[in-house]
């Protein structure tokens, strides 16, 4: 069913299968005939698309028909439909007008699809609006590797606004491509989701296949298959634990305010590279200069008072004046030391990962207040979030491989150095954090980058690797 709100947002009439809707604001005669022409064309194309999907039996067939239809209507070079089989699952390509796609391009397509879905807005590359330039790294990599000049894409959401996938259009010559995508996204997602729900599950399909097989084969054949399957399930295989990974600095250096005083000037922002002894910020010296001048004046006064007391043979008073003079001298030295450390400099070579004080210039700062956080370059710490249900299969020293969403074509490898003994709550899941050092000689990786990891665990029978989760779940349900 078409989304009325998307049509109204673009000035089009809503499509309804129940009653027609008439919008009247008494327009001019010219607009009365000119405006509906394009909208009628768009609605007709969407209706034709949905009617073709009604005759499809599988989601793959429906997706392929949809991209072919959209390619013809938008005069596009290529159209791809990526679908998410379950909520929170990985997105996968379900329909593509280019039947033979290079395998090395697939990771870029998946990464771009995830990025477009995360943006939750229509994506255009290259962007025409300066406010629409965020989160386009994977999209830019996809356009560069295809290659292509223009890309339009939108997230596919069903009637409950749940993320179902992504629709990507390359090199469309239709001027109303963005309007068409906004109109077609929700009904297309709902139609494909309806077909997916009507398809038989894996268990149902397996039961059907087994039933058909038993009709054609004898009991001896079934026994042979069972024996072969059992033998196959007993073959030892390495168990791989799937987990999410996030990059963090190996160490963190926090730069604090050395003395009380107003912030005079800030020279860096988050993301800037800094060198050892590089200037980060400056504290206004005027307050300390005033205190230093006053302390020096008091020191001179104490010196004169001491001399006067000695001249008057007031030896007790002169000793007190000496002590006061020593106190003022120490105070002056402290102020001079503070005056010489008003320039805040970086202690290491690294990158600023937090601390944006460009709008705080002139504001009073308190001694010990954190200004910046610096992470060293050249090496990162990969934090692998191991699910609580898999922690028994993971130990320190195990090998692991992982891919970052920002660099899907790079395979990173490492060895688990340690596993935190205490569980943490991340993304509403109880996990244990394993640490793996990752070399970064080119300085490409940034704190906070995420990806997927596979940990090479112990060897188990293939049947255990495939079905142990289901077995334990069943055991908990029946109370074993």
From TrEMBL:
Protein origin, superkingdom: Bacteria
Record localization: Cell envelope
Domain CusB-like beta-barrel stretches: 383-458
Keyword DNA damage: no
Keyword tags: Coiled coil
GO cellular component terms listed in the entry, alphabetical order: cell envelope
Subcellular location, principal: other
InterPro entries in the record: Beta-barrel_RND_2 (IPR058792), UPF0194_transport (IPR050465)
Keyword Cytoplasm: no
A matching Pfam family: Beta-barrel_RND_2
Database matches in PANTHER family: BLL5650 PROTEIN, EFFLUX SYSTEM COMPONENT YKNX-RELATED
Protein name stated in the entry: Macrolide transporter subunit MacA
Organism: Rubripirellula amarantea
Classification lineage: Bacteria, Pseudomonadati, Planctomycetota, Planctomycetia, Pirellulales
């Amino acid at each position: 069913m078409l989304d009325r709100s998307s049509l109204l947002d673009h000035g089009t009439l809503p499509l309804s299968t129940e009653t027609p809707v008439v919008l009247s604001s008494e327009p001019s005669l010219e607009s009365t005939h000119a405006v509906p022409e394009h909208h009628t064309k768009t609605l007709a194309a969407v209706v034709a698309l949905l009617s073709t999907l009604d005759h499809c039996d599988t989601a793959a067939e429906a997706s392929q028909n949809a991209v072919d239809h959209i390619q013809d209507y938008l005069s596009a070079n290529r159209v791809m439909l990526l679908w998410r089989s379950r909520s929170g699952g990985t997105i996968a390509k379900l329909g593509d007008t280019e039947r033979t796609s290079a395998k090395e391009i697939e990771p870029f397509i998946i990464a771009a699809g995830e990025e477009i879905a995360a943006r939750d807005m229509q994506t255009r590359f290259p962007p025409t609006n300066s406010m629409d330039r965020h989160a386009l790294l994977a999209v830019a990599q996809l356009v560069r590797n295809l290659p292509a000049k223009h890309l339009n894409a939108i997230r596919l959401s069903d009637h409950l606004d749940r993320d179902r996938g992504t629709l990507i259009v390359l090199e469309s010559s239709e001027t109303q491509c963005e309007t068409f995508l906004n109109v077609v996204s929700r009904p297309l997602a709902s139609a494909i989701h309806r077909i997916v729900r009507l398809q038989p599950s894996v268990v149902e399909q397996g039961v059907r296949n087994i039933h058909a097989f038993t009709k054609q084969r004898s009991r001896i054949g079934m026994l042979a298959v069972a024996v072969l399957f059992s033998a196959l399930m007993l073959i030892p295989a390495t168990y791989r634990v799937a987990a999410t990974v996030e990059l963090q600095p190996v160490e963190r250096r926090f730069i604090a305010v050395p003395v009380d005083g107003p912030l005079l000037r800030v020279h860096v922002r988050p993301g800037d590279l800094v060198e050892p002894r590089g200037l980060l910020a400056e504290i206004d010296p005027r307050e300390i200069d005033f205190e230093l001048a006053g302390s020096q004046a008091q020191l001179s006064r104490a010196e004169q008072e001491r001399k006067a007391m000695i001249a008057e043979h007031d030896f007790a008073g002169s000793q007190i004046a000496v002590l006061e003079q020593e106190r003022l001298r120490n105070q002056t030295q402290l102020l001079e030391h503070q005056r010489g450390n008003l320039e805040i400099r970086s202690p290491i070579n690294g990158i600023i990962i937090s601390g944006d004080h460009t709008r705080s210039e002139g504001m009073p700062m308190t001694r010990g207040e954190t200004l910046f956080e610096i992470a060293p370059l050249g090496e990162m710490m990969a934090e692998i979030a191991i699910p609580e249900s898999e922690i028994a299969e993971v130990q320190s020293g195990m090998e692991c491989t992982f891919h970052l969403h920002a660099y899907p074509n790079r395979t990173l490898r490492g060895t688990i150095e340690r596993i935190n003994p205490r569980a943490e709550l991340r993304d509403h899941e109880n996990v244990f954090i394993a640490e793996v050092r990752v070399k970064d000689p080119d300085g490409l990786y940034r704190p906070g980058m995420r990806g997927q990891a596979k940990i090479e665990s112990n060897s188990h029978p293939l049947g255990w690797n495939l079905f142990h989760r289901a077995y334990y779940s069943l055991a908990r349900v029946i109370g074993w």
